[in-house]
Specification:
The complex is a heterodimer of chains A (about 190) and B (about 160). Chain A is α/β, with parallel strands linked by helices and about 190 residues long. Chain A folds into two domains: about 80 residues, 2-Layer Sandwich (Double Stranded RNA Binding Domain), CATH 3.30.160; about 80 residues, Arc Repressor Mutant, subunit A (Orthogonal Bundle), CATH 1.10.10. Helix content of chain A is about 40%, strand content about 15%. Chain A contains seven helices and six strands; from the N terminus they run H-E-E-E-H-E-H-H-E-H-H-E-H. Chain B is built from six helices and no strands. Classes of the chains: A alpha/beta (about 190), B mainly alpha (about 160). Chains A and B meet through helix 1, helix 2 and strand 4 of A and helix 1 of B.
């Protein structure tokens, strides 16, 4: 595509303002590398460590609809809150979340996950208990692994019973960085 | 028989693929200055109609028809005297269309566009309507009266 930058930006801005988009996304620079973030009318729907949009967009299109466009302006609020978080100036996100793609046990677990506070950790088992199924620690691990909105839904705060970090969808290095940022690891 | 139909790509992919062609057409027909506004309008119209598409076939012909429609509206708003019609004749080198060209060139503009989009590109009436900025019923009518007219000529 060789469209002049200002013309391209103008279209993306007016598309975002038009209310016609099923979802808008952008790639946001962060301490952890580029993040793909997508919002819908219902709120933030996706954060991905994989900044290559193609795969993500197809998945998102199935849930939200095909009118998906990269529209940086629509992500202004998300970008501001993430920047502040990475700068250590924000400990709670005020973003609306769009979790239409999940239901049942997964939704219950993610709702409990959202309550684990900044700078603290919980174990997979504790989270399973809070979601009403103490024996589902392994299933909770799966839910963490497929968390559609990491960072904001803080699956990095969920660790093994021994305190070991265990695993992270974005790689253990990122999990460690996030926990250090929050002061949960020294 | 199962027919594989191209699924509708995310709008981003559609936009990136066709933006250059649309801008080229608009600049040729409207000049650089007016082409910028027409570009916004073309893709906003496409965005508005995008979730009514039933398949992802011939999206290039579809969006270029919308662009041609925007060209006409731009001329009209500016009070230019013109009898321009959606320029589907020169959109694409698809064989299906080329075969129809010698027949349809003599049809009235809207009928020609409707017949070509229906039978040359196999678009459904919803898609034709969104490209021509009219209703599916009107698109169906234009197509069938175009076909009737052709039949009278051929026989």
């Amino acid at each position: 595509m060789t469209i002049p930058t200002d013309l391209d930006r103008r279209f993306r801005d007016s598309a975002a303002r038009s209310g016609l988009l099923d979802a808008a996304y952008d790639v946001i620079d962060s301490e952890l590398g580029p993040l793909l973030a997508a919002v819908t009318d219902h709120g933030l729907a996706r954060i991905s460590y994989d900044p290559e949009p193609e795969r993500e967009l197809d998945v998102l299109a199935r849930v939200a609809g095909p009118r998906i466009l990269r529209a940086p302006r629509a992500l202004d609020e998300t970008r501001r809150e993430l920047d502040a978080y990475f700068a250590g100036k924000r400990t709670v996100f005020d973003l609306e979340l769009d979790l239409r793609g999940v239901s049942g046990f997964t939704l219950g677990v993610l709702e409990e996950l959202a309550k684990v506070p900044y700078g603290r950790t919980a174990t997979y088992r504790e989270l399973a208990e809070r979601a009403g199924n103490p024996r589902a620690a392994r299933a909770v691990g799966m839910v963490m692994n497929r968390n559609p909105i990491p960072i904001v839904l803080p699956c990095h705060r969920i660790v093994g019973s021994s305190g070991a970090l265990v695993g992270y969808g974005g790689g253990l290095e990122r999990k460690e960085k996030l926990l250090r940022l929050e002061g949960a690891l020294l | 028989m199962m027919v594989t139909v191209a699924s509708i790509p995310p709008f981003e992919a559609f936009y990136v693929e066709h933006a250059d062609d649309v801008l080229r057409l608009l600049r040729r027909r409207l000049g650089r200055e007016r082409a910028d506004d027409a570009f916004q309008e073309t893709f906003l119209r496409a965005l508005r109609a995008y979730d009514r598409l039933r398949h992802g076939e011939h999206l290039r012909a579809w969006v270029l028809t919308i662009a041609s429609r925007v060209v006409i509206d731009t001329h009209r708003r500016a009070g230019d005297v013109t009898d321009e019609v959606p320029d589907v004749a020169h959109l694409d080198g698809l064989p299906a269309y080329e075969e129809l060209a010698f027949l349809t060139d003599t049809l009235p503009p809207t009928e020609r566009a409707a017949v070509v989009l229906r039978y040359g590109y196999d678009l459904d009436y919803e898609q034709i309507a969104s490209a021509l900025d009219s209703s599916p019923d009107a698109a169906r009518q234009a197509t069938s009266s175009g076909v009737r007219r052709l039949r009278r000529r051929v026989t």
